[in-house]
Amino acid sequence: MHRDGSQHMSEQGNEYLINLKSLGNAKFIYCSATDTLHIIMDEGDADKELLLENNVIVRIRSGRVIEIAIQEVSKIVQE
Known about the structure:
The chain is mainly beta. 8% of the residues lie in helices and 52% in strands. A hairpin with a 2-residue loop joins strand 1 and strand 2 (14-19).
């Protein structure tokens, strides 16, 4: 973690900035129909979408993470 509260996430040599301080303004939305937890840091369309391990989707715009979606979240909570 950096002094400004940010962390870097890399995917095949690319790095994306996650500003953890911005989580204070984030929306946390659970969709029971899809069993998905959405953590939305910024509204709008993403430039890129990454599917990570464990059914985690990261949406990126202008090199910054704008949303993290955790699919099948009830399975993770039960573990």
